[in-house]
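Show me any protein, keeping tokens residue-aligned.
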Amino acid sequence: MTKFNQDEIIQRVESEGFVPLFTHIDEDVCKRVLRASYEAGIRLFEFTNRNSNSFDIFIALRKHCDQELPGMVLGIGTIKNAQQAEQYIHAGADFLISPLILEEIHEVSRKHKVFWMPGCATATEIGRAENWGIGLVKIFPAKQLGGPPFVKAIKAVFRNMKFLATGGIEPTEADLQAWFKSGVNAVGIGSQLFPDEWLKSGKYASVTEHVKKIMETISHCKKQDIIPES
């Protein structure tokens, strides 16, 4: 059973304001990216279920976290059905994230008391999550849905819902500030966080420094006490 409940996961996401997303077919690369992120200060990480060997790698990462990265909250993303949800919960996922909202996943997560963050793209989907008692949803694909203006508009209707924006987030101060000003509580960043050329050349120290800078930028944006415009 997971060590963290819904409120604890939401609090962690909101306090950090940042969820790194990563997937790869090489176990060693995944472990080194996870450690580089940990050394930067990351304590909540999403490994995404997008490759044929993702489950085997997740098992290895779960063990790696338990043995060498104390305090790391490790979740699994791209969960698209109940079977996958069951599989990864039994493998030790601390939380689940999906690109969609599906009742069968909700039922599994509720049964096991594991936090699930559905992906939502419309008011209807956000409203469904709210009615199910889910306090945090992923706005996906955030940039393609309309970016910060979309979040600002939807936040006016769902003032108590917390949002993680994922998809097209730029790791620059101007872009991050726009997202937080619109009303998001956190952002998810993947491909731009871990450049392929750095991974291929083993520049994991550069990954750590890159992640640190993004964390500092996000912290700066949050400390400005930005309030969404009415």
Remarks:
- Residues 204-223 form the longest helix (20 residues).
- The domain at 6-221 is CATH 3.20.20.70 (TIM Barrel).
- DSSP finds eleven helices and nine strands in the chain.
